[in-house]
Amino acid sequence: MQKALNIDPAKCTGCIQCELACSMEHTGSFNPSKSLIKVFKFHDQGRFVPYTCTQCAEAWCMQACPVDAISMDAINNGAKIVADSVCVGCKVCTIACPFGTINYVPDTGKVAKCDLCGGDPKCATACPTDAITFVDASSTGLEKMRNWAAKTDSGASAQA
Amino acid sequence: MAWTRKLLRVNLTEGTCTSEDLNMQWAQDYLGSRGLATKYLVEETDPMVDPLSPDNKMIMATGPLTGTCASTSGRYTVVTKGALTGAIACSNSGGFFGNEMKNAGWDMVIFEGKSPKPVYLMIENEKATLVDAAHYWGKSCWDTEEGIKAERQDPQIRVASIGVSGEQGVKYACIVNDMDRAAGRSGVGTVMGSKNLKAVAIRGTLGVRVDNPVEFLQATDAGKKVLAENPVTGQGLPTYGTQVLMNVINEMGAMPTRNFKEVQFEGAANISGEKMHEVRADGTKNLVTNAACYGCTIACQRVSTVERTHYTVKDRPQYQGASGGLEYEAAWSLGSECGVDDIEALTFANFICNEQGFDPISFGATVGAAMELFEMGVLTTEHTGGIEMNFGNAKALTDCAELVGKGEGFGKEIGLGSARLCEKYGHPELSMSVKKQEFPAYDARGIQGMGLTYATSNRGACHLRSYTVASEVLGIPEKTDPLETDGKAGLVMAFQDATAAVDASGLCIFTTFAWSLEDIAPQVNAACEGDWSVEKMLEVGERIWTMERQYNLAAGFTGKDDNLPKRLMKDAAKTGPAKGKVSGLDKMLPEYYEIRGWDTNGVPKAETLDRLGLV
């Protein structure tokens, strides 16, 4: 069963534990600037939104890469993975991605993006409020459905 | 590991920034943050220095856990000689500034001297530069933070700045980071202003490492679980913030009201955490959401709006968005202390405190004192510029906030703080303060341990040096009778030492609603070199406390300053469970000195100093 990250901004408090877990997993230190998931704070609205790669099925980054450094990891939930040994740091993928979730890393001369941590995304484990969960990729709407379902009157018949 | 082992020394007079190795022996003896920075201040400055002189230094410091994934580990401390108090000042702030300093590779930054013109410090990892800040002088903390990010085209920069109040010498100016987090007390922002230092801006991308990552992740995970399962840190604080206390403290008759004339406020429910959740006439609530500082799994912060039709924000769109909302201390000082129960006015006044960088506790308490002077006829509208300073007048409160923010008119008088204001007008006894710092929101008649806490606090009256409310009200770690003085000396000492150790680690003191040092020491031990047991943490805490005491004694304070205003010692509480009670400080203080190993004048004995390695 393929799983996917599911983000519910309404539950996010902006603590960035996801960024700390991500950077620790990928760089060995706590370093929000190197995190592949980012929490955006909209101060005037009191809103926090975690944002990362959605692992597009037909990923722009993968299509655009001129050296085929980005591939789909079919075993790992369809994650799009950058092969550092192949990446030449041309940054075309960073232009192609409509969401900005693949970025160049000056320290390595390569690009970096979310790789779902090999099937165990640390951001989801670290999130204290379940704003980030790792769920059945075909049921990311399940909790929203459940919440709507809970609002129905059990005595009334549904009208689709 | 955990420590970056580097400090940045900024000489503002010379305009130089130099890197130094951290003294690692001191790190083992004082841990970090509050402890280590105070050690540097003690070693490098004369305790008799004028706080606003270039010879005073100001240190911004992180702890070894700052910038890690330990819950609440974003904190940093500002240590200096306080402008409000003339005592050791140590103000702590959350948000996302401390972790950025650590990620830039610095354990602390020491500021010395005085810049000939307004500057801000820009730190980009190892590169530190003093930048002309003429165009930010006269600007608020909010405009300065947004301006620096825009000017440098980097929204990821973190900024701590002073507002106009800090420039103008308001005695309780603070240093605001991330728009609404502040190193709030004792006038650390006033010291920063005296150095012509407008802001510190940091971008750090180096990463924070710990000594034993596997053990550290286990220890911090265990700690987070404890916080999540505890009713205070897992439910109470996220839902109501510190405002969970408003109705509780009022009911137990420990809610200072109208400059401590009373101990219960009839309008408490109107300014409570519960009220912030109520739907207003326009369909919105005061509370927008709760929010977290860096790494915090509690998330107690309030994010609020002022109702758009309220007189304070109508036609002023810059104040209609969400920003840092009322915490209990501010709701008390701006509210019941002034007899004001208009929560929208309090929220607005709190916004102005954040925008212009001044401490809402000292500000509200000074307004409360001014209101008493006004009702006595000592202050008149001649003095106030026409403001009717009666208790309960919300407009007077918000007008004063805006005037203090600009350093104009009657705001200059309120900006003196209550001790200097009341002294100036011939009634020093009406300042509800210790060492010139105003009390926070717990009446020493109804919660006896807090009287001893205030009287002996090294930075002047403060609840965050030993929060015995935890024991006396909430039963953490065990319940003690708030009206009893027996046993409080030991309780206060235990809280003071443990708190100093927690502060030094870089964690937030709010964790201690759920964590004891048994939970914290393993996190420190896994992060840091050395053997960090509970015993060592307590020893470091006691060493820090005693060092701060020694600094104050050298700065001219004596045991006579371990005192409370006459009102708390002589005028009994009029209502509630504490009715008829005064503070029993006189019963607690001698015992406190004894168990501290201090003589009857409050001076640490030679053997005590020897035991702590402070000779």
Helical element count of chain A?
A: 5
In angstroms, what is the radius of gyration of chain A? 18 Å
Helix percentage range of chain A: 10-25%
- Neighbour order of strands in the largest sheet of chain B: 2-1-6-3-4-5
- Secondary-structure element pattern of chain A, one letter each: EHEEHEEHEEHEH
CATH fold label of the largest domain in chain A: Alpha-Beta Plaits
- Judged by helices, strands and strand pairing, the structural class of chain A is alpha+beta
Strand arrangement across the biggest beta sheet of chain A: 1-8
Instruction: Report the uncertain regions of chain A.
Output: none
Note the quaternary state here.
Answer: heterodimer
- For the termini of chain B, the CA-CA separation is 29 Å
Structure, explained:
The complex is a heterodimer of chains A (160) and B (615). Chain A has 160 residues and is α+β, with helices and mostly antiparallel strands. Chain A has helices spanning 17-27, 60-64, 92-96, 122-126, 142-151, and strands spanning 3-7, 38-42, 47-51, 70-73, 79-82, 103-105, 110-112, 132-136. Chain A has 2 domains: 1-52 and 115-135, Alpha-Beta Plaits (2-Layer Sandwich); 56-113, Alpha-Beta Plaits (2-Layer Sandwich). In chain A, a hairpin with a 4-residue loop joins β2 (38-42) and β3. Chain B is α+β, with helices and mostly antiparallel strands and 615 residues long. Helix content of chain B is 39%, strand content 13%. In chain B, a hairpin with a 2-residue loop joins β7 (119-124) and β8. In chain B, α11 (328-334) packs parallel to α13 (360-375), α12 (343-356) packs parallel to α15 (394-406) and α20 crosses α24 (585-596). The longest helix of chain B is centred in the C-terminal third of the chain and has 21 residues, at 534-554. The interface between A and B is medium-sized, with 26 and 38 residues.
